[in-house]
Specification:
Number of helices: 19
Strand content: 15-25%
Number of domains: 2
CATH class of the largest domain: Alpha Beta
Number of strands: 31
CATH topology of the largest domain: Rossmann fold
Oligomer: single chain
Distance between the termini: 60 Å
Bound molecules: 5'-O-[(S)-ethoxy(hydroxy)phosphoryl]adenosine
């Protein structure tokens, strides 16, 4: 028997040791006992980080939706698979059983087929958090189409860039979405995006807000009439273990967002196994992850991981602040949530509103609390622990990435003693390493360095869509024979890990990864802007907020800084989305640069954090006087 469900700390160590002694045989056991295969694999693992090439369960045949839906029909057809909680608290929640999910996914899959979608085609999904989003993801997987979900808060330019990059044939969207008291015209954004996407042949539109929208003849169709007509059975497409399952874009420190490609079998095995253990999910539990399916957290821990375990997974359409800041707790009480998984930024935003709203609701159903997306600071950790978990629910601070597909460093609840701000220990099968600046591994405890992983795990991304060289350069070139995460970490006296943050030019704002380069590109489009540099600075709710340093072109005439600031933020909203707007903008006469012309962001970061005396080595600066000017500006503003 493989230890599918780890129950105590001793067992964790035992299973961990086994998993790293022989990873292939460990994962083979898990795969064998807990999933449905159409054909068994010929080889569990082959890998070469120098190419890099990683293959898990080669030769196996399967369909992930058979594992997430069909195989549960017999034993739990009437169990709720997806519990949909709408934006408006007065609209009833919707319980979709496994049987209903099967029918809806099959119908949707048949609609996709009828519109020419075949195995391997890319389908871009730009939908709000409504059941159609989860259903369409699964429908793609059922017929072997590769889904690429784009978070519905991204702008039309960001959307079109992603559609073009993965060459999607079809876009799935809705007439609009609700966000608190507002509605958003998603279809309008899609229409704008598609002006630059000649490859898109069809757009299927779900009805959500009943607004008047434009339907383009020959391209756009309403989804519902097609679903009504569709057959409710759809055979699974038999997929190879390493066939692509989905592409999901994540920001890089430079250039285009990276389309991380995940494949089928390894992703399924790892997300299912981590879900079961990290949340200690039991048969009748109601599990809620507040993320959006537009991010990896939603892919792995709203859709695939929970459904592969036959769990009940909640999908929430709204925001934590609507109709008031008690909404999360109202939902916990209403649906008797047992596992609650959210982001530190949400915890901080809610903590700001005191404890009255938390105390108003009965949260006694809660067993496990989770945190993901960014480091959770000590204060937020304690607030979460004391007021939400009432000191009875272990907090799993889960560290992982879009690239890793599943949770990598985390406590196992009721087993691993937790420690505020520490993600604690590697999950089963994960072999972390801390590296120094010379590329050497740092052994022992009470050390810090750059976080790498030494051995492949089943759910790692296999490539960057269309750019394998970039995949190699970004993740496998910094340290020989290791996957480099881009994060820094420290290991304490007992071997617990604490993630200290990104060591590259990615900034995490409210849990969203943002690359500095695309934001600077957007700013530089402004006709008055000569140059810009973006850095993150500590923010009490968002974790980090963005600060821009801008130099204006010397045109002889003066520009109104307030107007330029507004226009710059509008450009960012248009090019990327409102999540990337700048909280602070400083107009300066020059940026700190090295003699070779490289902007010294480290200095800007320190100044923005008001750490004026920790600027480090400034001897390579071309013009030290700009630093003094910037310091004075920021100090005056503080
Ligand atoms: C950060 C989200 C500290 C980290 C699943 C990582 C975290 C990036 C944690 C990936 C955590 C995620 N503690 N930092 N528990 N979880 N991060 O791709 O910098 O959206 O590299 O995946 O978020 O963000 P992504």
């Amino acid at each position: 028997m493989s230890n599918y469900h780890i129950k105590n700390f001793e067992e964790y160590f035992q299973v961990y040791r086994k998993s790293v002694r022989n990873p292939a045989s460990f994962w083979e056991e898990v795969a064998e006992e807990h999933f449905t295969w159409q054909k068994r694999w010929d080889n569990v693992l082959s890998w070469d980080f120098t190419k890099p090439e990683i293959k898990w369960f080669e030769g196996a045949k399967l369909n992930i939706t058979e594992n997430c839906i069909d195989r549960h029909l017999w034993s739990k057809g009437d169990k709720t698979a997806i519990l949909f909680e709408p934006n408006d608290p007065n609209e009833p929640a919707e319980k979709i059983t496994y049987r209903e999910l099967h029918t809806r996914v099959c119908k949707f899959a048949n609609v996709l087929k009828s519109r020419g979608i075949k195995k391997g085609d890319r389908v871009c999904i730009y939908l709000p958090m409504i059941p159609e989003l989860a259903v369409s993801v699964l429908a793609c997987a059922r017929i072997g189409a590769v889904h690429s979900v784009v978070f519905a808060g991204f702008s039309s330019t960001a959307l079109s860039t992603r559609i073009v990059d993965c060459d999607a044939k079809m876009v799935l969207t809705s007439d609009g979405s609700y966000r608190g008291s507002k509605t958003i015209d998603l279809k309008g954004i899609v229409d704008e995006a598609l002006e630059d996407c000649p490859g898109v042949e069809s757009v299927l539109v779900a009805k959500r807000i009943d607004s008047e929208i434009n339907m383009k003849e020959g391209r756009d169709e309403w989804l519902q009439p097609l679903l009504d007509e569709a057959d409710s059975e759809c055979e699974i497409e038999i997929m190879d273990a390493e066939d692509p399952l989905f592409i999901l874009y994540t920001s890089g420190s430079t250039g285009m967002p990276k389309g991380m490609l995940h494949t089928t079998a390894g992703y399924m095995v790892y997300t299912a196994y981590t879900f079961k253990n990290v949340f200690q999910y039991r048969e009748d539990d109601i599990y809620w992850c507040t993320a959006d399916i537009g991010w990896i957290t939603g892919h792995s821990y709203i859709v695939y991981g929970p459904l592969a375990n036959g769990a009940t997974t909640v999908m929430f359409e709204g925001v934590p602040s609507y109709p008031d800041f008690g909404r999360f707790w109202e939902i916990v009480e209403k649906h008797k949530i047992n596992q609650f998984y959210t982001a530190p930024t949400a915890v901080r935003a809610l903590a700001k509103h005191g404890t009255e709203l938390v105390e108003k609701y009965d949260l006694s159903s809660l067993k496990v609390l989770g945190s993901v997306g960014e480091p959770i600071n000590e204060e937020a950790w304690h607030w979460y622990n004391d007021n939400v978990g009432k000191k009875k629910c272990p907090i799993v601070d889960t560290w992982w990435q879009t690239e890793t597909g599943g949770i990598m460093i985390t406590p196992i609840p009721f087993s691993t003693p937790t420690k505020p701000t520490y993600a604690t220990l590697p999950f089963i099968g994960i072999q972390p390493a801390l590296m120094d600046e010379n590329g050497e591994e740092i052994h022992g405890n009470q050390v810090d360095g750059r976080l790498c992983i030494k051995h492949p795990w089943p759910s790692m991304a296999r490539t960057i869509w269309g750019n394998h060289q970039r995949y190699k350069d970004t993740y496998f070139s910094a340290y020989e024979n290791k996957y480099f995460t881009g994060d820094g970490a420290l290991r304490d006296e007992v071997g617990y890990y604490r993630i200290t943050g990104r060591v590259d030019d990615v900034i995490i704002v409210s849990g969203h990864n943002l690359g500095t380069a695309p934001i600077e590109d957007a700013i530089n489009e402004h006709n008055a802007v000569a140059e810009s540099a973006i850095v993150g600075f500590p923010h009490d709710v968002k974790g980090n907020a963005l600060c821009g340093y801008i130099t204006l072109k010397d045109t002889g005439e003066s520009r109104d800084h307030t107007n330029v600031s507004k226009e710059v933020n509008q450009l960012i909203t248009d090019r990327i989305g409102p999540i990337a707007k700048l909280d602070k903008i400083y107009f300066v006469s020059g940026l700190p640069k090295t003699r070779s012309g490289k902007i010294m962001r480290r200095i800007l970061r320190k100044i923005s954090a008001h750490e004026y005396n920790q600027l480090g080595d400034t001897s390579t600066l071309l013009d030290p006087t700009v630093v003094d000017e910037i310091k004075e500006l920021v100090k005056a503003d503080a």
